[in-house]
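Q: Could you write out the predicted structure for this multi-component system? I'm mainly interested in how the pieces pack against one another.
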Amino acid sequence: MTPATPSTRPALPGWLSRNLGPLGGLLALIAFPFVVAAQSGDSPVAVLTNESGNAKFYQGLFIEVFILAIYALSYDLVLGVTGLLSFGHALFFGMGAYATGILIKSFGWELGPTIVAVIGIGVTQALAVGVVLPRVKGVTFALVTLGMASVFHIVVQTHELSPWTGGDVGLQGLVPPAILNPNADRLRFYLVSLAVMVLAWLAYKRFVDSPTGRVCNAIRENEGRALMLGYNTFVFKLIALTIASVTAALAGSLHALYQPIVSPNVASLSFTVAALLMILMGGVGTLTGALFGALAYRLLAFFLDRWFGQIADVLLGVVYIALVLFVPYGIVGTWRRRRGRGA
Amino acid sequence: MPETIALETRRLRKQFGGLVAVDDVDLRVQAGSFHAIIGPNGAGKTTLFNLLSRTLDPTSGQIYFKGRDITRLPLHQTAHLGIGRSFQITNVFPNLSVLENVRLACQAVQPGSFRFWEDHRRLKAVLERAHAVLEQVGLAARAALPARALPQGDQRKLELGMILAPDPSLLLLDEPTAGMAGEQVPELMELIGAVQKRGGKTVVLVEHNMNVVMRASDVITVMHQGARLAEGTPTEITANPAVQSAYLGELYGDLGATQEDA
């Protein structure tokens, strides 16, 4: 027997010390709104009563980070873990956002049934995309998924659908349900989106370490060999795609509830590229990297815009190129390599 | 007794355009035997191997495994019947650990691959089997290394470990010693022979270098220009005048050259 396997590794002193990093991060994020309020001279009660303007603003920024993180996490499962190059991932997010908006606004649905419907849509669209999986591989799969997302991007902007989708202006006028209204109770929305992100991260962590997730890893490494070993790789790819699709659709749902407008751009290629940038910055295939990548992506855009105004986009491009060149394994990937835990 | 035939082909044929790579080959492999298929470059042995291992579809003809027609069976299902195969080119999961490579090979033929809510280490039988196989092929000390970090010879051992892991009854090996240093070749051949004898397994081994298979084989089939030229025990094959005049000289000449290189 080898001493180097995780199962025979001597137990570390307790569950708590092993999970100090994630727990500390979670506590910091829960405390964050109150810290911001204190910084700007408001009492903690003002955060609870939704009266601290500064805290509200920064909670809003972080709600966006959480939503992006959930979305990036789902893309990491497809690309980083399973090795499927999809250029249509924004479709999954956009479907969730538009479905939520239309069901609540045009059909007057409650939040609960809407979420159930979004999950159902998430599964259905993954199966629809998955149909092509056995026939197209690699770049062809990228192009097919890009085509599917582009069709959606065009369809939601058509004049005929504009009573529901808002056409090229975007879907506006969605009144969030009282139970989860980001304007009436910012803190609740902040905590709910944080909780969704943490739960998704935990579930994904477990998935990649499960027998099923391990096969997905094997498919990324060498699909032909996985097939020869006796795995029906199509089924495993479809499972990964379905989980990712449901997750992205739920992120889209939160996006529709939070933002005053659902722009057609959430289904565009640039939004898929955003997911790619986030996991590249965070570390492809690391899952945790998706969270850091989303944080870096949103904060970079925010502060560059605040400090440099119009040339922010150019600077953003420079920063991305620099990161890919000098930190090719991303934030979490580089961290793990430094600590000698391998790729 | 039909059960004694492990693998059989009937008029198996593969054509690439006008080229007939495998020309109506009838092959019968006795269960529990060590059966080598040899021939010079271009004899069609690798194509035949790819047909037998279901990575290529034949143009016509049938393949039977233990009496069951597997000619059109999807590739991933053959592993579940107990067919293991290795290829000339090392074909592992480069960035996964040596242990994980073998563990995945075990997991493939056991239930539990769809337990997406559970840690993979909970599949205890799979993990134990993987460790046992690493012991068997002599890679236990390197279990935690990524497969890409192994030297060539150890990669061949890993390849063998991945085939042995699901405990198949039929092993299809395509030049398992390819790329190995000369002194490692007998070691690996002995390992294969020991596994075959102990487990009562059937081995079909495709080989260019005749010297490698002379000692281990029960039966040798000689391929020439896509067809079966001769078949018999190693002694019969060496003594066969047709084989000799057709190309044994060429093979031995080739062998001499590779030994000088080594």
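A: Regarding packing and overall arrangement: Chain B touches chain A through 46 residues (CB under 8 Å).
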